[in-house]
Design goal:
Strand 7 (348-355) and strand 8 (361-369) form a beta hairpin. Helices cover 53% and strands 19% of the residues. The protein is an alpha+beta fold.
Length: 524
């Protein structure tokens, strides 16, 4: 039974490790499995006497949960960025664990040991919609509060989106942080201390709510401090204080939660039915245990075989390149900030700005991720709802989708609207999956619907390269005009090709002589 649990939990942790490594907000997740083991060991000495064991009920729950692992792993392998499936996977692993505990000691053992196991849920990435809403709400609240406190301290400051303008420059989310990382980590720490001191449920809830307040307050202090240093010594000084301020609030929040948990601690009376005997022996047929181990191994083996088979017969994706409007006098390549590179970790990426002769202004981002287990997760993290406010734009609303058709190939774009100093900016985003050159051509934009994700697993598509095209259009009258401008001009910039790889062509001598930033870029 221990081997079955080890295989189940190893598979879950390996899957979650990809999320923890690609998203800095959940890097603390690597420690959580060790916390779970430690807390279980602390509960072992005062475990209750085994009672009311029902091996048949445990077998039914465990069998159903084990059976669910096969479809979960098949779909999850193709959709590593689908966060709700992580929660289902974790729930299944906890159900198998609870069934094993029930078989050994009955319901009293489940009540005694299950709480440390549930700590794992605090290490799961939140559903993307909820996380984005929390990030925006936290960032907006911290930004507004910081501006108010700066003005009260006679430091002139203005809010522009999620950017704080001071006399020496701008302090944005990349400098002061939104607090989502500290919030998730603080919630996990509060849950850990609640279990460490065996607090009652009301006290645990109070500790977790206090953790939310601590995370917000300390991030507000951090943002105020960094903004104050920027106003006093210049924006360049923020980099010198950024990491030290982050480490300080982490240590302070940890200490505050620890002290609060100790204050809430009340010694529990000794359990009358506690036992000091060894682990109870559960008599299960060796054939059943062998079948369980074989089933779990078969899940991982079948999943790998399924995708390898389809990778040998997969159709080729339609590839495309961008023909930059290099003849325009307003065309400028922009350098992508180092903070963006460190977060998104794309393989290659470029940004360009240019004005069309009849008025509209375009800003175009083109990013690509090489095939790999984290490619889709990294690509989906780049969303204008997060990046645009961090650059000083105010989110207005999601807008209608736009669709550009070129030689029968559809390029669907998600739309959103922002405000920049009183002027609207319309952003259109298209995420595209790259595939190897085998078989016939196939059009594959990333379908993030539930049915689309199941079909991705059905056809064995995993670890595909990703390409992101994002266009921000301004200096137009309304959303409809922006959409029409996109549909009219984009076909002149997209070139369908067999192979799509970034390659930078050197600027011509005339461009170098002018000394500007204009280049000739091409995807081949």
């Amino acid at each position: 039974m221990g081997l079955i649990l080890s295989l189940v939990w190893t598979g879950l942790v390996l899957k979650l490790s990809t999320d923890w490594s690609t998203n800095a907000q959940y890097e603390f997740g690597y420690f959580v499995p060790f916390f779970v083991i430690y807390l279980l060991l602390r509960r072992w000495p005062d475990r209750p006497v085994p009672s009311g064991r029902r091996r048949r009920k445990a077998a039914v729950v465990g069998g159903i949960s084990l059976a669910m692992l096969l479809p979960i792993r098949l779909v999850q392998e193709a959709n590593p960025d689908w966060r709700p499936l992580n929660w289902i996977h974790a729930f299944t692993a906890v159900s198998i664990t609870a069934a094993a505990i029930f078989a050994m000691g009955g319901a009293s053992w489940v009540r005694h040991f299950i709480l440390p196991v549930l700590l794992l849920f605090f290490a799961l990435p939140w559903p993307l919609g909820l996380e984005q809403a929390m990030v925006q709400d936290l960032t907006g609240a911290v930004t507004r509060s910081t501006v108010e406190f700066l003005n009260l301290a006679n430091i002139p400051a203005l809010q522009r989106g999620n950017v704080i303008e001071v006399s020496t420059g701008s302090v944005g989310v990349a400098d002061a942080c939104s607090g989502m990382r500290s919030l998730a980590g603080t919630l996990m720490a509060a849950a850990f201390f609640g279990e460490f001191y065996r607090l009652t449920w009301p006290r645990r809830v109070f500790l977790i709510l206090s953790g939310v307040l601590v995370a917000f307050s300390l991030n507000l202090c951090r943002t105020f401090f960094l903004s104050w240093r920027a106003a006093a010594e210049g924006v360049a000084s923020v980099a010198a204080w950024h990491d030290r301020a982050g480490l300080t609030i982490f240590l302070v929040s940890f200490a505050l939660l620890w002290m609060l948990a100790r204050a809430l601690f009340r010694p529990l009376p000794a359990l009358r039915n506690a036992t000091t005997t060894g682990c109870p022996i559960v008599r299960i047929r060796s054939s059943i245990l062998a079948a369980g181990v074989a089933w779990v191994l078969m899940i991982y083996g079948f999943t790998e075989a399924w995708y390898r088979f389809h990778e040998q017969t997969r159709a080729q994706s339609i590839s495309w390149s961008v023909k930059w409007p290099q003849t325009s006098d307003s065309f400028r390549m922009s350098e992508v900030p180092d903070e963006v590179r460190s977060i998104l970790r794309y393989s290659e990426g470029y940004s360009a700005n240019f004005d069309w002769p009849d008025g509209p202004r375009w800003q175009l981002f083109l990013l690509r991720w090489d095939p790999g287990r984290s490619s889709s997760q990294l690509a989906t993290m780049h969303r204008p709802e997060i990046c645009m406010p961090a650059a000083g734009f105010k989110f207005i609303s999601m807008s209608k989708e736009a669709e550009v058709v070129l030689d029968g190939v559809k390029f669907p774009f998600q739309g959103s609207t922002y405000d920049c100093n009183g002027s609207p900016v319309y952003v259109f985003r298209c995420l595209w999956e790259e595939q190897p050159q085998t078989g016939m051509a196939e059009n594959r934009t990333l379908d993030m619907s539930v049915m689309g994700r199941f079909m991705t697993a059905r056809y064995g598509k995993r670890n595909l390269g990703q390409k992101l095209l994002q266009i921000a259009i301004s200096n137009v009258r309304n959303e409809e005009e922006a959409r029409e401008d996109l549909e009219r001009r984009l076909p002149d910039l997209i070139v369908l090709s067999d192979v799509a790889r970034f390659r930078v062509k050197p600027a011509d001598k005339e461009t170098e002589a002018r000394g500007d930033l204009r280049h000739s870029w091409n995807l081949e």
